[in-house]
């Protein structure tokens, strides 16, 4: 056997081994499933703005909500939460075609259409982010949020509403609202959405609401847009033109830490082009009652090609609440990668900051 013949067979063998390795890797894919059949699931969606600002990306967000719809029974999905920045711009009418090619009306219509797949199937709570206010970014607290997500959009969400505050325009909307939910195991939850950089009046309303006797036995969850950075620190201050607002450190100091029943805080907002760790964070602190407060930031908007990319590679988080009423398992999954056998091996992120568990008291 001459050396050219040997080299040919060596090359062919390498190709076969490579294909076998890829095939084996693909065969290892397992779709999301409950670790315990008696668990229930919450889905956490990151900032959708980059999906909405380009027409080509809008179907990816619809794929994500369609996947949630298809898996409601399989995963026993009881709640969906979204971290805000539903759109890239609240009121722009002349997109430049480069950084964004959809006017705000089309962006709001697209995100509302995506969530419509869940209407009547599962309740969802949506934070209002800085990009959901003003013209292209928050300068005034004017928003089209209530036009596209009115109280009656999803009757299952409406069914759970218990308290609502006035927004900056003096209108009661879901920007600041309280929802009640009882888990299949009987644990009572109070879910509270807070506007971007909530005003002092909103934090006072939230604190007063949580202190009511009828909610003293509930586990409270706060959903707000800006709270933690990627170093797991409470955000101190951001340079927006609004005259009044509270960011992570102030929200912690004025509302979360003094409480006796807030045990979970979810947020988004942060990110850097194609840097997974710049989009996530997690920390635990004690509230005034000595209970652990688990605080999670999850975003993906600059993954999949940066600020002008595909919107975030379809990443979402699956939070499985186990029947012991305490343990929560966190997994990070992409329905976008999962739809094709050629990309299914990319559908899970399994680093320690993407796949972990924690306990609620």
UniProtKB/TrEMBL annotation:
Signal peptide region: 1-24
Alphabetized InterPro entries for the sequence: Calcineurin-like_PHP (IPR004843), Metallo-depent_PP-like (IPR029052), STPP_CPPED1 (IPR051918)
UniProt KW keywords: Signal
Calcineurin-like phosphoesterase domain boundaries: 65-270
Protein name, as recorded: Calcineurin-like phosphoesterase domain-containing protein
């Amino acid at each position: 056997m001459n050396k050219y013949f040997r080299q040919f067979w060596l090359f062919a063998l390498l190709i076969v081994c490579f294909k076998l390795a890829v095939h084996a890797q693909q065969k290892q894919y397992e779709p999301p499933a409950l670790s315990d059949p008696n668990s229930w699931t919450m889905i956490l969606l990151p900032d959708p703005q980059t999906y909405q600002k380009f027409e080509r990306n809008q179907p990816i967000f619809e794929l994500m909500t369609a996947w949630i719809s298809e898996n409601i029974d399989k995963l026993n999905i009881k709640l969906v939460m979204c971290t805000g920045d539903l759109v890239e711009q609240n009121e722009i009418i002349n997109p430049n075609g480069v950084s964004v090619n959809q006017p705000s009306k089309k962006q709001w219509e697209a995100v509302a259409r995506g969530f419509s797949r869940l209407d009547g199937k599962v309740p969802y709570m949506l934070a209002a982010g800085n990009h959901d206010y003003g013209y292209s970014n928050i300068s005034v607290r004017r928003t089209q949020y209530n036009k596209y997500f009115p109280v009656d959009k999803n009757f299952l969400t409406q069914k759970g509403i218990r308290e609502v505050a006035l927004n900056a325009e003096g209108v009661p909307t879901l920007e600041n609202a309280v929802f009640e939910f009882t888990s299949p195991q009987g644990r009572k939850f109070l879910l509270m959405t807070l506007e971007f950089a909530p005003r002092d009046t909103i934090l006072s309303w939230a604190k007063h609401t949580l202190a009511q006797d009828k909610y003293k036995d509930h586990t409270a969850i706060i959903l707000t847009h800006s709270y933690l950075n990627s170093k797991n620190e409470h955000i101190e201050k951001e340079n927006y033109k609004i005259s009044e607002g509270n960011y992570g450190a102030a929200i912690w100091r004025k509302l979360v830490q003094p409480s006796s029943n807030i045990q979970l805080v979810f947020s988004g907002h942060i990110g850097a082009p194609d840097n997974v760790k710049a989009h996530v964070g997690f920390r635990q602190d004690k509230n005034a009652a000595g209970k652990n407060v688990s605080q999670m930031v999850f975003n993906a908007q600059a993954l999949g090609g940066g600020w002008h990319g595909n919107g975030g590679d379809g990443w979402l988080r699956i939070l499985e609440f186990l029947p012991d009423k305490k343990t929560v398992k966190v997994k990070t999954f992409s329905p976008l990668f999962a739809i094709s056998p050629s990309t299914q091996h990319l559908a899970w992120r399994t680093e320690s900051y993407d796949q972990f568990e924690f306990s609620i008291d």
